[in-house]
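Justification of computing resources. Each target in the renewal requires a structure prediction run like the one illustrated here; the chain below, 375 residues long, is used simply to show the kind of job we budget for.
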Amino acid sequence: MEQGKEAAAAKYTRQGKLLDRARRSMIYYYNHVMSGGKWNGILTPEDFPPPRTAMHPAFMPPVGAKGDASAGEVAGKDPAEETRFASAASAAGPVISLWNEGSEIVFTRPAVKWLEIGNNSGRPLNCRISGPDWIRFTESGLSETEIAVEYEERILFEADREKMDDGLGYEKDGGVIRRISDEIVVTEGEEKILCRIPVSALVWREEDVAAEGAGSQESPRYGNRVCAEDDGRICVEAQSAALSEGWKRIENLVRDSSALLESRKEGAALRYPVRVFSEGSFLLELHRFPTLNSTGEIRVGISVDGGEVQVLESESKDEHCGKWKENVRNNVDKLYLQLPYMSAGVHVIGIHGMSRYFAFTRFVIYTDKRKENAL
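Resulting structure tokens:
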């Protein structure tokens, strides 16, 4: 609804009600029909407020036309801004939104991104989406694709790094970065342009990175060891570091079944090269595995480029302390620290062991305003 996709919201509302009806029917069958009602009263999830299980599907019924998400306009975009986006007049037409809730797509590493087309017209829309030759759409495997949109469709695409490199050269623009800019065009049928979406990619040579002193012998351009800023954040997995003495790797304890790193020796350091395209004092979010230490401290040290070590400490040292309940629910304790000023380029983040058994899974550096996410 916030994106103006009212027809899609109405569809999901209908589906949500069907799901809720099926859930209630299954509960009734279990209590009153199966085995002649032998177990009636055992399965009663609605009898105990608040519900102990997630029962109710999330949906928002449309209550009227928004009027502020006109056809061809990117949802969440300020209409007053001067852009290259096409705009149409009817609020009953298509609404296009981007994966990052922004107005452009920027690739800094291999990643699948997407745009969504919502259809409020009441009739199917036959859309063609085309991009530069270095964009590859998942559905077609080509730089263009076609799709029929009844309510809402998501179109996935990625940057073809081989074509990005071919014949581009590497003129230095503001350092060692080369920016390739183009646009993705969404049309209805063959001619009616619904939207133009700016798309760009930032590429660089790994020898340029080595010259900046990142200390990595692996290719940073495609994310082997140097993690690059992407859409306002840098996500770094703990296990991506070269394991040093004093840290132990423990497999299959992370939410996605990957590994975490656990401190076993005070002062032992891990080093993570990161590339930032912005500059400033950024927010670091470290994902600690929620262990307890009721009689001691749970701390870790953070440094940038070998500078002063700042202490990051968890308040959730025992049950019901700090954010203990939220940590248990989400299987993560998120700790925050404002980093010192960082210029554009490659920097090294140091993680220094302070408390024995301190364990973490990843950290995120927000170079833009932090948004709620599922990391």
